[in-house]
């Protein structure tokens, strides 16, 4: 059935896939959103960002527009050119 295929697709998405998907959005993602999506602590999310950079991804870091706001990260280039 269609419903079970959807569940399977979501179950096979790794936490790293989730991070990449969130970073690929036009709006990007802040640390809190990445933590919520993965269940990781902030240092683990930062390590994942570092690992992506080392793998050839370009991650743009946008400083907050307002004081006390969140830094936003966005994937702007991948090693395979996507």
Features:
3 strands, 82 residues, alpha+beta, single chain
Provide structural commentary:
With about 80 residues, the chain is α+β, with helices and mostly antiparallel strands. The protein has helices at about 1-10, 15-25, 30-40, 40-55, and strands spanning about 30, 60, 70-75. A three-stranded antiparallel β-sheet has the order 1-3-2. Helix 2 (about 15-25) packs antiparallel against helix 3 (about 30-40). The longest helix has 13 residues, at about 40-55. It starts with a helix and ends in a 5-residue tail after the last strand.
Mean pLDDT: 89
User: What's the tally of helices?
Assistant: 4
- Taking strands numbered 1, 2, ... along the chain, how are they ordered across the largest sheet? 1-3-2
Rounded to the nearest angstrom, the radius of gyration is 14 Å
Short description:
The chain is built from four helices and three strands; from the N terminus they run ααβααββ. It has 82 residues and is of the alpha+beta class.
Describe how the helices and strands are arranged.
Elements: H1 2-12, H2 15-24, E1 29-30, H3 31-38, H4 42-54, E2 58-62, E3 72-77
Antiparallel strand pairs: 1-3, 2-3
């Amino acid at each position: 059935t269609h419903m079970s295929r959807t569940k399977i697709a979501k179950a096979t998405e790794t936490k790293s896939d989730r991070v990449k998907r969130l970073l690929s959005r036009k709006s990007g993602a802040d640390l809190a959103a990445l933590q919520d999506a993965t269940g990781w602590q902030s240092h683990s999310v930062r390590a994942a960002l570092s690992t992506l950079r080392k793998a050839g991804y370009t991650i743009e870091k946008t400083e907050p527009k307002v004081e006390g706001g969140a830094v936003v990260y966005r994937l702007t280039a991948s090693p395979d050119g996507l």
